[in-house]
Amino acid sequence: MGSGIYISTAGAVAQDTALDVAATNIANASTTGYKAERVTFGQALANTRAKDSAFAAVAAVSSDSSAGALRRTDNPLDVALLGDGYFGVNTPAGVRYTRAGDFRLDDQGRLVNGMGFVARGSGGNEISVPEGATTVTIDGQGQVIADGDEIGQLEVVRFAPTALRREGDNLYSASGPPAAPEGEPPEIVSGALEQSNVNVVRGMVDLVKVSRAYESLMRMIQGYRDMESAAARGIGRPR
After folding, report:
1. What is the rounded radius of gyration, in angstroms, for the C-alpha atoms of the chain?
2. CA atoms within a 13 Å half-sphere pointing along the CA-CB vector of 117
3. What is the pLDDT averaged over residues 148-176?
4. 87-117 per-position pLDDT tens digit
5. What is the pLDDT, as a whole number, of residue 1?
6. Pairing between strand 143-146 and 149-153?
7. Which of the four pLDDT bands, split at 50, 70 and 90, describes residue 123?
8. At what angle do helices 2-27 and 200-235 cross, to 10 degrees?
9. What angle do CA 130, 151, 144 make, to 5 degrees?
10. Whole-number Å distance between alpha carbons of 157 and 182
11. 31 φ, ψ to 5°?
12. Contact yes or no for 38/61 (Cβ under 8 A)
C-alpha cells in the first residue's frame, strides 16, 4: 500500500504542473504574441525494486511554436512576425525577446513595447524619433520611418527552440547567441498584431481533464491512507 501512495502522489504532482500550465494558457488567450505551453509526461524511478511500479513525472514543459492568427489594427507602429523570429527589447534584467509587436513611443520619443521596454534596433541600439516628427511608421522590412526618413531598423532574431526560456511579461531569455540566418527571414506585417495561439476550447477541455485526473489521484491517496490506518488498528487489536 505504501508504494501505491507514492505512485499516486507522483501522478498528482505531475498533474498539478499540468493544471498550472492549462490555467496559464487560458489566462493568456488574449495576450498578444503568446505561445501556449505543452506538458510532456515521462517516467521517474523506473529502475525500482518493484518491477510492477512506475512513477509518473513531468518530462518537459515546452512552447507551442505554431503561429497565432493576425489581427489587423491599422496602427502604424503595430507589427507582426510571419515565420520564426523574435523582437529584441532591453529590460532592467538585460536583453529579452518577444513575439509581441505592440510598439509605441514613450515620453522620450523612444520606441517601446506594450510593457514599456525599449525596442532594440540593429546592433542593439535604441530607436529614437526626432523631436517634432509628425508621422512615424514601420515598414515590411522592420525599418522605422519618421517623416519619410529611415531612423532605425527593428532587431529580429532567431533561436533554436531549446535556447529560449520563458519568463514573465511575455518575454524569453536566451541561453546563447542568436542562430545564424538561414533561408528567408521572417516577414514583418505592418499595422497588425499576432494573437495568442491558445485554442480556448482545447484549453478548457485540457483543464477539465487534468482537474478530474488530479481529483482522482487525490482520492486514491486518501483511500490508501484509510487502508493503512485500518490495517494499523487491526494489528494492535487483541485476538
Report:
1. 25
2. 22
3. 91
4. 999 999 999 999 999 999 999 999 999 999 9
5. 47
6. antiparallel
7. confident
8. 160
9. 105
10. 11
11. -85, 125
12. yes
| Grid cell of 233 as nine digits | 488498528
Taking the CA atoms of 99, 101, 105 and 111 in sequence, report the sign of the dihedral they define: positive
pLDDT for residue 10: 81
Helix (H, G, I), strand (E, B) or coil at 11: helix
Tens of pLDDT, residues 21-40 = 999 999 999 999 999 998 88
Q: How far apart are CA 165 and CA 180, in angstroms?
A: 19
User: How many CA atoms lie within 13 Å of 56's alpha carbon, on the beta-carbon side?
Assistant: 20
Q: How far is CA 29 from CA 6, 21, 146, 147, in A?
A: 35, 12, 34, 36
Alpha helices, DSSP H, located in 116-199: none
CB atoms within 10 A of CB 71: 12
Q: Which three cell numbers stand for residue 189?
A: 506585417
Characterize 107-135 residue by residue with b for buried, 16 or more Cβ atoms within 10 angstroms of its Cβ, and e for exposed: eebbbbbbeebbbbbeeeeebbbeeeeee
C-alpha cell at 14: 505531475
